[in-house]
Automatic annotation (TrEMBL), chain A:
InterPro entries in alphabetical order: ABC-2_transporter (IPR052902), ABC2_TM (IPR013525), ABC2_TM_bact-type (IPR047817), ABC_2_transport (IPR000412)
Subcellular location: Cell membrane; Membrane
Pfam families membership: ABC2_membrane
Lineage, opening ranks: Bacteria, Bacillati, Actinomycetota, Actinomycetes, Micromonosporales
Membrane topology qualifier: Multi-pass membrane protein
Keyword terms, alphabetized: Antibiotic resistance, Cell membrane, Membrane, Transmembrane, Transmembrane helix, Transport
Location of the ABC transmembrane type-2 domain: 20-246
Coiled coil: none
Membership in a protein family: Belongs to the ABC-2 integral membrane protein family.
Positions of transmembrane segments: 20-37, 57-80, 101-124, 136-159, 166-186, 221-240
Main location (coarse class): membrane
Listed PROSITE patterns: ABC_TM2
Protein name: Transport permease protein
Automatic annotation (TrEMBL), chain B:
Protein name listed in UniProt: ABC transporter ATP-binding protein
Organism (species): Luedemannella helvata
Subcellular location: Cell membrane
GO molecular function: ATP binding
Family annotation (PANTHER family): ABC TRANSPORTER ATP-BINDING PROTEIN (PTHR42711:SF16)
PROSITE patterns associated with the record: ABC_TRANSPORTER_1 (PS00211), ABC_TRANSPORTER_2 (PS50893)
Length: 246, 308
């Protein structure tokens, strides 16, 4: 297991050497919460949002933002670039299977996500009195399930992208509409019914719903769980089938 | 027992035949060259040996193991330096070595390895900031870090300047001197001539010759060519009558004499007797390039492009 540990450490180290990735995936979501929290109107309960404050919603949306940034923007580019530059191929001449690089990349990203989401929750709690998840176990389950679904999608992007540039393009093409449906620009609560239905069927929309349910103390509903499992299975299998090592 | 045995290897990509019935053996402790023009099937051949590609037919044994079924064992015993393979830009030399060392059960001391390769000053340098020669040396270090018994080096010096190329040759000889069997893929005649104990000349997927560099050149051309400018008028017949000489021709002030092995001694003896000094004396022997031309009917392509 020393190889996997070393690979994971290497991936973490390389991630920290990309200032843009560190900023957008780790710091920006908390900055977003801080900025929105400073708008006075967003700190008042809103009947249109079921009595929640805007800032309450954005803590969950910021957590989703972290996962989307890592899974759709950072990881696919790294893996597609590794393939493009023959790094995976080189590894397949050693006793260590390049599958471990993918595993190390996922583990490293999950560790980074834990730190970034922890930061978001801390900023929300300390600065704006946003309650921490009331059902911690349900939150952990929702978090893992959403991560699994969105990283499966990210691995699929890494599998189909011929090179790093293409992975960046495909990742961005997915990131913005999916974040829209997660409520980054308008919360799902105030979306027109048609948009809301579509949002419920997207991985990030379902993920946000699952996280929010756990935040208020409930277990995620069957709907979002089914959607997330669906994305995990469909894109996980497709990625596993289509991923090329060289 | 040979270290590597390749017998009747075949590999095609769709319609294109990349490797056509290739057979050779590599003995323990030698530098074995696979020489040929770009696209001749050299890389495909060694990739089959390294277990990176599956041949369509034919047998491969490396240290008694079959790359198709004993891949895991083999990867511990064979170090591979691949053409066009890189590392993450922002990974430092020391980090790369430490990482790759963790892949092997009994890795070499990478600090010693890197000292031998002259990269100690670059330990903290990131891969993206290394020069071409330094990248190649790191690549060699990574191929050797698992203490392999066989090292496969593919187009090691392509893209390097002449000085870096010569430095790299010394490294390859040092590897062999440590008892590692080396398989060297190249399209540089000079490199093959200088380094290889034996070599397989490959063209269009086929082995056209298999011999030592000297054996190859001797086989196709035992002719020597002597160029000189006589210091005093010279009667060509004096040389033409010598049994060792096959032809005497003039090109302006210069004389070209061709002949067998001992022609130089015979010509110089006659010139000394006539008290004529041969100015600008030049002796040309057949090179591997001549051997290649004689065997295939065309010159090896020596452009810097690499095959994929």
């Amino acid at each position: 297991m020393t190889a996997l540990r070393k690979l994971t450490l290497t991936e973490l180290r390389l991630f920290l050497r990309e200032p843009m990735s560190v900023f957008f995936a780790v710091l920006f979501p908390s900055v977003l919460v801080a900025i929105l929290g400073n708008v006075k109107a967003f700190r008042k309960p809103d009947p249109a949002l079921g009595g929640h404050r805007v800032i309450d919603l954005y803590v969950a949306i910021a957590a989703i933002f972290v996962l989307a940034m890592l899974a759709l923007q950072a990881a696919p580019v790294v893996l597609a670039t590794y393939r493009e530059r023959g790094i995976l191929r080189r590894m397949s001449t050693t006793p260590v299977n390049p599958v471990r690089v993918v595993a190390a990349q996922l583990i490293a990203n999950m560790l980074i996500a834990l730190v970034a989401v922890g930061l978001v929750l801390a900023v929300g709690r300390i600065a704006f009195d946003v309650s921490l998840p009331r059902n911690a176990v349900a939150y952990a389950v929702a978090f893992l399930l959403t991560s699994a679904a969105v990283f499966a999608l990210g691995l699929f992007v890494a599998a189909v992208a011929p090179n790093g540039k293409a992975a960046t393009a495909i990742g961005s093409l997915l990131f913005f509409p999916l974040m829209f449906f997660a409520g980054l620009w308008i919360p799902r609560e105030v979306m027109p019914p048609v948009l809301r239905t579509i949002a419920d069927l997207t991985p990030l929309g379902a993920g946000e719903e699952a996280l929010r349910a756990a935040t208020t103390g409930d277990w995620p509903g069957l709907g979002p769980v089914a959607v997330l499992v669906g994305y995990l299975v469909a894109f996980g299998l497709a990625a596993a089938r289509m991923f090329r090592w060289q | 027992m040979p270290v590597i045995e390749v017998s009747n290897l075949n590999k095609r990509y769709g319609e294109r035949v990349a490797v056509d019935d290739v057979s050779f053996t590599v003995e323990e402790g030698e530098i074995f060259g696979i020489l040929g023009p770009n696209g001749a099937g050299k890389t495909t051949t060694v990739e089959c040996i390294a277990g990176l590609r599956t041949p369509d037919s034919g047998g491969i044994r490396v240290l008694g193991l079959d790359p198709r079924t004993d891949g895991a064992k083999l990867r511990r015993l064979v170090g591979v330096q691949l053409q066009e393979s890189q590392l993450p830009e922002k990974l430092s030399v020391a980090e790369a070595l430490d990482l790759y060392a963790s892949f092997y059960p009994d890795p070499a001391d990478w600090r010693q390895l890197i000292a031998d390769l002259g990269l100690t000053a670059q330990l903290k340098t990131r891969f993206g900031k290394l020069s071409g020669g330094q990248k190649q040396r790191l690549s060699i270090a990574l191929a050797l870090i698992g203490r392999p018994r066989v090292a496969i080096l593919d187009e090691l010096t392509t893209g390097l300047d002449p000085q870096a190329r010569r430095d790299t040759w010394q490294l390859v000889e040092a590897i062999r001197d440590k008892g590692v069997t080396v398989v060297l893929v190249t399209h540089f005649m000079e490199e093959a001539e200088r380094l290889c104990d034996r070599l397989a000349l490959i063209d269009a997927g086929r082995v056209v010759a298999l011999d030592t560099p000297a054996g190859l050149t001797a086989k196709v051309a035992d002719e020597q060519r002597i160029w000189f400018r006589p210091s005093a008028p010279l009667d060509d017949r004096l040389l033409g009558d010598l049994p060792e000489v096959t032809s005497v021709t003039r090109s302006g002030p210069r004389v070209l004499v061709t002949g067998r092995e001992d022609v130089l001694l015979a010509v110089v003896t006659v010139l000394a007797r006539e008290q004529i000094r041969p100015l600008d004396l030049r002796v040309e022997q057949a090179t591997l390039d001549d051997a290649f031309v004689a065997l295939t009917g065309r010159s090896i392509d020596t452009d810097e492009e690499t095959t994929v």
